[in-house]
Amino acid sequence: MNKFFSVSFLLLVALNVSAISSAQASATPIRELADFAGVRDNQLVGYGLVVGLDGSGDQTMQTPFTTQGLGNMFAQLGITIPPGTNMQLRNVAGVMVTANLPPFTRPGQRLDVVVSSVGNARSLRGGTLLMTPLKGVDGLTYAVAQGNLLVGGAGAESGGSSVQVNQQAGGRIAGGALVEREVQVALGAGGFLDLQLREADFGTAERVVQAINRTFGREVAGAVDAGLVRIISPDNDNDRVRFIARVQQVNVTPLAPPARVVINARSGAVVLNGQVTLEPAAVAHGNLSVVIDTAFGVSQPSPFADGRSVVVPDSNISVREQVGALKFVQGADLMEVVDALNALGATPTDLMTILEALKAAGALRAELEVI
Question: 38 Cβ partners below 8 Å, 6+ apart?
Fold first, then answer.
């Protein structure tokens, strides 16, 4: 990444954060800030077999679990395979099937499933998933998946050459799972509803409590801690549903997030939020490079001399240091911080080092997070 990208990237971040800061000045519905305890998805997983592949399935000699799974399925269908039979099947693949079970899902409803190969199958295109039980963390079966796969990737090979677009070892089945068991959600247990903030903050929790109590005209909510608000629940189910819907529509203005700088050490991306400020500081930035250049020459003896030709290395070592003068940096708001950092003329990689040094010097008023 070059210096122009650094300037453009930081300016783009500044514009986006400025827009976000303006949006935060308005109220936000509680449904976008918090969730009621127990109202959540549940993850399901199962092992199954995909059949009907065009010679692109597992190599059964290297994936014995595929042959074992197929043998178990045949046994359940009343088909007996003679012992010692070497099944060389190239149109079958062992797969893991995953799905999310949303809250309040009833038996008979359908779920989307994701199918991923666990063996060495080259492609699942054109395959059909056989009936696969999907289990929860408690080991119980909550859904059963089956259907034809939709694979987004494509590939071809001929004469020892091949080409592939996207991933072919995985696919999806829209509505491929049928729910067989529901997860009970105990709302209002003990006469209370627990509202969990997605980002724990004492100030936001206080504002949520005040907004709810102001909406209902009485003390129905109280903060347990920075991430949990407990609300008195109606006893009747119908009243509880109306009460929850009304709570979710209550508008709250959350507190601004703390000043934070996020650095992605792998990609070199640097992101600043609108609360970041820079205290007065002076920064000198320069690059030091050591170049070692080795040239090989041949040393030959004089004519009729008793000697032999040898290769002689000739090394030249040079040290180059880029001039880095002290530059004053200071910023009271995000645009001033961006201008001050861009004035250093540093690449995003160098910018990470500068920000860490500013934080150590106490000039960067923000949390520094490296991911």
Answer: 103, 185, 186, 187
Return the structure tokens found at 290: 């050591």
For 207-265, the pLDDT digits (tens) are 999 999 999 999 999 999 999 999 999 988 899 999 999 999 999 988 877 888 888 87
Residues 368 and 273 sit within 8 Å (Cβ to Cβ): no
Phi-psi region of 135 (alpha: psi -120 to 50; beta: other; left: phi over 0): beta
Q: How far apart are alpha carbons 244 and 229 in whole angstroms?
A: 13
- CA-based nearest residue to 198, from 28, 43, 14, 22: 28
Half-sphere exposure of 207 (CA within 13 A, CB side): 19
- Beta-strand ranges (E) seen in 121-205 are 128-135, 141-148, 154-158, 161-165, 170-179, 192-197
Burial of 177 (0-12, 13-18, 19+ CB in 10 A): buried
Q: Please write the tens of the pLDDT for every residue from 47-77.
A: 999 998 888 888 767 777 887 787 788 788 8
Helix ranges restricted to H, the chain: 3-24, 64-76, 202-216, 237-248, 334-342, 348-361
pLDDT, tens digit, for every residue of 279-303? Answer: 887 777 665 444 545 566 666 776 6
In order of start, what are the domains of the chain with their CATH numbers? Answer: 3-23+259-287+323-370 (no CATH), 27-39+185-252 (3.90.1150), 43-153+161-179 (no CATH)
What local confidence, expressed as pLDDT, does residue 322 receive?
Answer: 54
| Cβ(127)–Cβ(99) below 8 Å | no
User: What residues pair up with 170 in beta bridges, in sequence order?
Assistant: 116
Q: What is the identity of the amino acid at 305?
A: A
Helix/strand/coil for 151: coil
Q: Residue 150: which of 170, 122, 178, 121 has the closest Cα?
A: 170
Q: Is the pLDDT of residue 195 over 70?
A: yes
